[in-house]
Fold these 2 entries.
Entry 1:
Amino acid sequence: MTSENLAFHNVASSGIIADQLTKTLALVREFPYRTATELSIKVNPDVLSHDAIHKRLPELRRAGKLTNSTKRRCTITGRLALTWAVL
């Protein structure tokens, strides 16, 4: 097993990913139609990091919990970005 696979296994088995998924879903419920970056500024980075949010959003979409609603300019980055909403 590579060190990257081992790291993922350790995080997955510790429940960290499940916790991040739950927190990310709750964040989108509270702040729908926001970009990932806009969502990341709504939460303390010690609770849920910007990287974790960016990783978990597509996982929640694949699981059928979230959808991308529209594309618009992010109010933080100024770039065109997808927004997220709970199904």
Entry 2:
Amino acid sequence: MTTKTITVTLLHERGMSAIPVPFDPKAAFGKVRAPVKVTLNGYTYRSTIALMGGHLFVPLRRSHREAAGLQGSETLAVTLELDTATRAVTPPADLVRALKAAPPAWERWQALSVTHQREHVEAVEEAKRPETRARRIDGAVRAIAAMPARAPKAPRARR
């Protein structure tokens, strides 16, 4: 397994956090936008190296930062390991029913990236009240059904 451990200062600005990547991920992992398992402060999560504005980084969502017990500006060792496992999101049954009942929402759901699927699922599952959950499901179905059609993503072969 390809692994790289680096010592970096986390970036934290306007509520957003990221882990800078000070090496060439293509040389280390075979591609720039490499899927990785990130371990920091004893906590591990899955992500993808991003390139934005000429800078390489790994996103550090608030939920991950809090689970790792971090404020967002610490200097610490971070381990990035190439993640070759399949990524999939299992939507809750009520969201699946609503998507399938509103063609072409289900087909468009299947074409969404894992990140976008996860964001919709988290919004639904984090609702505290049934009415909020129903409203979030309705909003997700309308937004997904209104998206332009795309071909479903084929599983990628990992090298």
